[in-house]
Specification:
Helix content is about 25%, strand content about 30%. It is of the alpha+beta class. The protein has two domains: about 60 residues, no CATH class; about 130 residues, Sandwich (Immunoglobulin-like). The strands form two sheets. Strands 1-10-9-6-7 form a five-stranded mixed beta sheet, with no helix packed on it.
Amino acid sequence: MIDQQTTPSPGTTSPGDAAARTPQASAQKAHRKATHPWFTKKRIALPSAVTLLLLIIMASTGGNDPRIFDFTTSAVESKAEGATKVTPADATIGESVRDGRLAFTVTAVQRPSKTLTDRLGATETAEGAYVIVRVSVTNIGYEARTLTTTDQFLVDNKGQRFGTSSAISSLAGAETIFLEKINPGHTVNDAPLLFDVPAGTTIGSIELHDSLSSTGVKVGLT
């Protein structure tokens, strides 16, 4: 009688093969676990630990200690300080400086005053104090231009900016640069810029702009 040998089919695994593969599979699993990035293991643990720490601090202080959030306040405060940083002036009184298609020369600064007399002889009263800066403007471009009152600023010694006062329309001479166009090559002399600033403000400079989108120039007033 002839013994018949049984050949295992491709889809079956003998007990010996399974036993041989078990240590190999375990080693591969251990290797994957050991080389798994640490930060993916901590995704849940780190936020939970931070939350738990905050709860402990709030419980111990009654939740009323504002210093818990000092790290956000400090960032906001430092950003505000950077926004009011005083930058050096580009020119001084009597010097010509250009921005865009206009050249500016500050000719005079009047002392702060509580009141002023408008073009009709009426008295205007400031909320704080009126400051008038007189400036000559030359059109160095190729087209007629006008200034915009909202693009001009007075700057104090701390870097704070003040827009022009609405009472500027009552001043004689203001219409020559804000209502009438300045033709190329022409100059308007000693036009007034009016500002209403808090009483006691120390004036540092004036910031002049050809337009809203222009860089602007600073003229020192001290």
